[in-house]
Amino acid sequence: MVNILSILTMNMISPINIIAVSLGIAFFMGLLGNKAQRTSYILLIAALLFNTIVSLQWLYGLANNLVEAQQIFTAGYKPPFSINLLMGLNEAVIASLINIVGLLGAIYMGSTLKKNGSGSQVVFLVLFMSLNVIVLSRDLFNIFVFLEVGSIAVAGLVILQKGVKAVSAGFKYMLATGIIAGIFLIGIIFIYRFTGSLNLDQIIQSNPAIKQGALISSFLILIAIILELKPFPANGWALDVYQAAHPGLSAILSSAVGTANLYVLYKFTGMAGDSLMHYISLIGIVTFVGSNLLGINQKKARRLLGYSSVGQIGLLIAIMGLLPHSNSNFKLIFFGILTSHYFAKAGLFWISGIIKAENIKEWSVLRKKPVLLFLFLSFILALLGFPPFPSFWGKWQLVMELSAQGQFAVIIAILVGSFFEVVYLMRWAGYSIKLEAGTLPEIKLSKYIPVILFGLGLYAVGYFVSQSVEFGNTINYLPLLVVAVLLVVDFLPAFVKNSLSILATGWFAYLLIPGQDTIKFIFTIIFLVGGILTLIPGFQIKGKREGFYPSAMLMFGGLALLIEASNLLQFFFAWEIMTIGSYFLIIRGKKSMPHALSYMLFSVGGAYLILLGFGMVSAGNSGLSLDLLSSIKVYPVLAMSLMAVGFMTKTASLGLHIWLPGAHGEAESDVSPMVSAILLKAGVFGLILLMLASGGEQNSYSGLFYVLGWIGALTALVGNLGAIFQEDAKRLLAYSSIGQLGYILFAFAIMTHMGWLTGLTYTINHFMFKAILFLAIGGIVMKLGTHNMYEMGGLIKKMPFSFIAVLIGIITLAGIPPLSGFGGKWLFYNAVIMKGWYFQGAVVFFAGTIAFLYLFKLIYSVFLGQLKDNHRNVKELSIWFLLPQYILIIGIMVFSAKPDLILKPIGNAIAMAFPSNQLTWEGTKALSTLGYWDATTIMVVIGGMFVVLLGWLMFMSRKAQKVEQFNMVYAAERPERPELTHVSHNIYAGYNKALGFLVAPGITNFWNYTTNLVESTGNFIRRIYSGNGQSYAIHLVSYIVIVFIIYLTAI
Amino acid sequence: METIALITAFALILIGLFGILSNKNILKIIIGFSLFDTGLHVLIVTVGYIKGGTAPILDKVVGTSNAADKIVDPIPQALVLTAIVIGLGVTALMLAYALKLYQAKKSLNITDFKELKW
Amino acid sequence: MIRNILIIAILAGLATVFVSLFWNFGSSDTLTPLATHYANNGVEEVGAPNLVTSVIVTYRGLDTLGEVTILFLVAAIVSFFLKTENTNKEENSPKRETSEIILTASRLLMPIVMVLGIYVFVNGHLTPGGGFQGGAIVATSFVLMLMANPRFQINHRIIATVESVSGISFVFIGVLGILLAGGFLDNKILPLGTFGKLFSAGAIPIIYSLVGLKVGSELSNILSNFQGIQMKNYKQ
Amino acid sequence: MEFTVSKILWTLLGLFIVLNWGLIMGGTMRKIGARVAKRHGIPIYQPYIDLVKNYAIRTQITHGIMFYLGPVFRLSGGVGIFLFLPLIFGSDHWSNFSFSGDLILILYFQFFGMLGMALGAGEGGHPYSAIGIGRGLSQFTTIEVPMTLAVIALAVQYNTLSISEIVAAQQGGIANWTMITNPFATAAAMLSLLGAFGHSPFNLVKAPNEIPIGPPTEYHSTYLGVLRTNAAILHVVEAALFMNLFFGGATNWFELILKTFLIYFWSVFVGMVFPRFRIEQSVRWFVKIPLVLGIIAIIIII
Q1: For a tag site, which of A595, C97, D44, D148 has the least CB within 10 Å?
Q2: pLDDT tens per residue across span A476-487
């Protein structure tokens, strides 16, 4: 292939031939008439293929420095006397993008084009010819002419879609473009007047910014081209076209026309002075944020894509205005975000045409065709800037550049806009994954292939861009490769994929463990060994379990990368990968859709804060090493706080916790332990990195950590209080996780040696007992088919092994000696008293006592009390669920009896950062400055005593007689139904009366209110799109006037 | 001279725009466009005007040697031709649209075509 | 009413843009360097007395190609746009037969108008006018016929053929420019000839004639498409 | 410290003394209660009779393994606290196994028995057990908070969590007792103690006057015997814990007996005077006065 290309490049085909061949064929097609549709269609494809080849040839040649950029002089005269075209690397890239979408678009629209005869094909071909010219041309008026050609061609193609909607949309489009063209023309003629030239290079050279008249002319030109790019809110006309046109055309409009117009804007920006550039960036940002805000409540798929399209182009406009074009990374950023938009938007519009579903809720039909669903999700993630797509790198680099310039307000605006986009796109993704699937129309190969190619293109370009980003080559793609393999073999039965996944996780662990320091080692064990343990129950599941393993490995791969990360980029990459994977895992639960969405929103919000923080970290520093966290130059406290809050969205700290109960509670039985026992620790890992980097004991962030301490304490309280009023077993555990993570946050925030020992002990314990509890309860929930504890009961007789596991789990959780939970409590007291955080400590302690309430409720309602009639035939959980539980119990036992095995190395590891008041060891006895604790002895004493007493009681009651279920004293009655004697529902009613006000859903209400506010704002503003084409024209003119007035007041 | 032309041109443009923005009838809107276009064309020609210049066609009076001093700027004249043709094309297409819209709803009132909104 | 006031206010805002352009305008006594170049070297380089034609056909030939394309495009769009099903029986307003006098007069005038049109575009490089103007005049002849006799049928086939062939030829000549002369649409593929003669200025007369033919046929095509609807209404 | 045979034997002897003192104290208190109510009351040795009777009953039933384990856990809880608590200050023999853990261990080991009891009663399948336990746990959560604040105050005051060292710091006269040096902590803890002992007004959990409710109803014979044994031990060791923390500890058995009697009597005394709270009332009460006292105790030592 390379050989062929290089032969081709020996003999470059002049780009003028794009025009000549296209027009020649177009005119010839007119000759053919409507009869020979097939022939003319073949000619159309041939012409588009030719264009594609020419542009790709130039791209190849220019990118490899085989040829020089070429100026093409028409009519044989040098500019400015004649029109000239330029084929440079930029042009080659843009033209290639345009021509590829042209070719594939023509294939996609094949049937429509054939049906409408050669006329429509002529229009199609001319459209792409004109797009090529406006990219290549260096003459202002020439660009105008071909922009008009393009506009008219689009207006012609709009009506390929039948129905009055398309016609009225087309008319609105014509109204708008007509006015824009007029404005453009006024600008052109005056710039000719004031600079004496129509040649772009000459105009730029004459620096129109210095003459007022010329400045106003260039203002008009720029505003016209910006209006072509549909700035918010003067873009109602464009939205209608996106919605009503043939999806193939919408794809072209969004990707090809949008790209071409953006490039025109790029060419024109040379005329604008710095002040104008400022406004361009402002316009872009307003468009990005505004359009995405308005998109939030949109339910119609193509219109929604229209909003997103407008928004993305707004972002690109903003980038154009924000970064100096001489900036070495400008092109990379622009290219990354542009190509994501290009591939994704075209792909999505194409898919919309394949499945013919207007409402986004109907997109669940995609599930009938997993390949399409995969592509759909890839496109959506690409739009949102997730790795490994090009926009991820673009967005990353953009934030880094803007940070270096200190433009944090701009970053925030962009992140807010992105966040709005996440809201509606991820909601849509959720619908497609979860809702009832309708019937999928028959798919023609010609519509299928372009989508697939664009999907592949997205990944390929993503990789390409990553290699050009600074430090992008440090990214380890191994985990993604594993995911890809699992995607390919998704048709295999689950147990095969499960084995593969376990092997892969083990392999990651094998690769990672050597040479890690203690803390990372602990997290490697939690993430990866935990991963293996929680994957084991998957053997229980029959069938294929489509999509599960790629998601799981995406998450575990992300976690592995997180540990491996040595620079900010790697870390953020891993963080995002993990987020996507976990999202797809969480959403698998039956009722998980809304919860997965709120998980995603909080995660993305957190990720953006982290990104912003990273931006601040990198600003003023060179390189991206994680070590920079300890030398933040710009707003260090703010940066630290942002990152901390970002990580706290994952640990579900107070205020950011409302996603967790639903997400963990509704997830599948073996997913809950993954996300609860393992995934939450990713946030902890992040916090640990931050806190270690902050300087340990001698940090300058004591205020921040004080606040974090309180947040941790209150989180513990609220989480545990929430848990006691749950009737749903898994939600109870989920709330418990919130509480436990509150303890952990609190402990780390203490920032002393003892505090950190506490934190890490809690972390390890929580990993073990929460995995046990969720595995056991999850297995039971799966067996019984209900989450409600009051519908269970008496299962101890059916599932003794699970009962023992849960019992050990809750003893550990409660911190009752002799199990390892007590170690955490003991360390905690020492840490709190030494630090002097008495009140916070008391709050956490109170939370701990509350834990008893829910723990009792859990074990009592599920295992004790009366067995229900419909559970009389339930069997013990399968070995696949019990095995990991018992492995973890062994872990707990070891940690309980010999905590020094783990705590000593941890102590040594953190002694660097926290040298004072260390824990000292005398054999198995731990000594702090306050007290002492000998876990081994305690184990022996209690164990010995327990055995003696048990033996005694057994001896005493050896003749005890086993009785029937209902044999008991019950107010002189004998109950017959288990429900009547199993008090489980709302057993803490009294407590609720007394302290229930503490769990009033204030925070949920706050977030609901915020969401409603955003949505209703969006809905309100959306009304300006009244559907009246004339109003859109008024918007357009007002937009010009308003921007002009703002601009005038500034100069 | 060019002042008057310029004022006329701008006035025409504004009148045309007013027609476009205020008339409900689609045909009248298209007429507004024609006015708007005409204003633009006048503007372009005016910009090319040189005080006391003549048409840029060389003949016995205006030869190659003195052309540069005598003629008006030929470029805007060339541009205006293009602009006219484009305007014509747009108008034709708009009329076709108007026809189609009328066929669909038996109405030429632009406010009747609000199926797509928000 | 409020809406109109609002519109006026907005337009007043737009007028401020124009006013600021107006103040900066000033009158000019000299040509721009670009125009001066054309004035001084146009004849030598292109060989056409009509400098506007030189600019249109040669210097800015690509624009002209674009213009032609626009008309072509509109013709194509209108043809498939209006071709589509439209069956409206109520539209059947019976039309009166045209009077004999008008019919005859129009038939008489039509060739004359056409000849005028052809004259205008053939002489485009010498006199005011050119391909577009000539083409428009040619189309006028068809308008005349249509106005006189609404049942007049333009032969689509011929028009389409003329349209396409002239278009292809235009592009072909343009490409010849690359091969034989300085660049795309260079007129020097033919000798410049004697200044002021009909066969001079290289390929300009040919190009302009092609443009004229093309514009004429395109406009006629558009007209006939509009008329097509009219005809359908008649038949029903 | 090591697990020598003599150490174990001394500890068992201590346990025996504590058990007997617990039984006698329990009988005495019931006698006092009866006299206050103008009844004759039981003989003081009645707890012994009950115990023997319970252990001697031949008919026994069981609801399953956890039902079995419940009393074991419960008794382990009581005995465990005894094991980890130094009883007599300055005496190696009576310091039991307190070398393996400090105050925190004892605080948390209390839960061991509670949990076992709750689970055992739960398996009994009696609906009132669950209600009783639910109430008990609810009340317990709020009892513990002022207690914890008091303990923290103490730990800060004496800069240690070791009970022996806390006692050591209080030697040398009443003026050195925590009761005097930190009255708010003492008050908070003593109010918590009322809840911990579960006498009126905080005895809804056991509610002896109403229909049979709660765990003791389900348990009988040996099981009940075990529970009674534990109650006797637990009353003494809990009182001894408070004695150690707030009232200067004990240097000999006599002092221990006197002080534990008085501490236990405090809860009986209050119980005689005040009527019973409903559960939400007692929860609210504990998060008011004792909590405020606890907070004041902390504020003082800061």
Answers
A1: C97
A2: 999 999 999 999
Q: How far is C100 from chain B (nearest CA, A)?
A: 31
Render pLDDT for A683-697 as a digit per residue (tens, 0 to 9). 999 999 999 998 888
Beta partners for A199?
Answer: A139
Residue type, B63: G
Instruction: Determine how many CB atoms are found less than 10 A away from the CB of residue C92.
Output: 11
Beta carbons within 10 angstroms of residue C167's beta carbon: 28
List the single range of A135-139, C40-44, D247-251 with lowest mean pLDDT.
C40-44
Contact A68, A98 (CB under 8 A): no
Question: Structural domain boundaries of chain C?
Answer: 38-235
Chain C hits for A33, Cβ within 8 Å: 157, 160
Q: Is C20 on the interface with A (CB under 8 A)?
A: yes
- What burial class does residue A331 get, using C-beta atoms within 10 Å of its C-beta: 0-12 exposed, 13-18 middle, 19+ buried? middle
Which two structure tokens, joined as six digits, stand for D300?
């003082």
Instruction: Look at the pTM and tell me if it is higher than 0.90.
Output: yes
- The whole-number pLDDT of residue A286 equals 95
At A970 the pLDDT is 57
Contact flag B50-C229 (C-beta cutoff 8 Å)? no
Q: Is residue A287 in some structural domain? A: no
Residue whose entry in the numeric block shows the structure tokens 């997965």: A596
Interface chains of chain C (3 or more CB pairs under 8 Å) = A, B
Residue of B nearest to C72 (CA): B89
- What is the tens place of the pLDDT at every residue in A247-269? 999 999 999 999 999 999 999 98
Predicted confidence (pLDDT) per residue in D41-52, tens digit: 899 999 999 999
Question: What's residue C95's pLDDT?
Answer: 61
Q: pLDDT grade, residue A622 (50/70/90)?
A: confident
Q: Contact at 8 Å (CB) between A569 and A492? A: no
Chains A and B touch (3+ CB pairs under 8 A): yes
Nearest to A259 by CA among A220, A228, A293, A223: A228
Which chains have 3 or more CB–CB distances shorter than 8 Å to chain A?
B, C, D
Please list every residue in chain B whose beta carbon sits closer than 8 Å to the beta carbon of residue C36: 68
One-letter amino acid at D169 equals A
Q: Tell me which residue range forms the domain holding A896.
A: 472-947
Domain tally, chain A:
2
Q: What's the distance, CA A158 to chain centroid?
A: 34
B4 contact C CB<8A: no
Q: For residue A830, which amino acid is it?
A: N
Tell me the nearest-neighbour CA distance from B2 into chain A, angstroms: 13
In angstroms, the Cα distances linking A71 to A76, A77, A89, A144, C133 are: 11, 12, 12, 20, 33
Q: Which residue reads 């005049």 in tokens? A: C137
- ipTM here: 0.88
The answer to whether residue A7 scores a pLDDT higher than 70 is: no
For residue A1045, tell me if it sits in a domain.
no
Q: Which of A906, A924, A947 is the last residue of a domain?
A: A947
Nearest-angstrom CA–CA distance, C193 and C190: 8
For D130, the token pair is 């669950």
Tokens of D181: 């040096």
Q: Strand, helix or coil at B65?
A: coil
CA–CA gap between residue A277 and residue A272 (Å, rounded): 6
pLDDT in tens, C25-53: 777 778 888 888 888 888 888 888 888 88
Which residue, chain included where needed, has tokens 């840490």? A831
- Distance between A354 CA and the closest CA of chain C, angstroms: 24
* E strand intervals along D8-139: 61-62
- The answer as to whether A381 is a domain residue is no
Residue A929 counted as domain residue: yes
Q: Which of A705, A689, A697 is nearest to A914 (CA)?
A: A697
Structural domains of chain B in order of their starting residue, each with its CATH number: 2-112 (1.10.287.3510)
Greatest pairwise CA separation for chain D in angstroms: 58
Amino acid symbol at A780? I
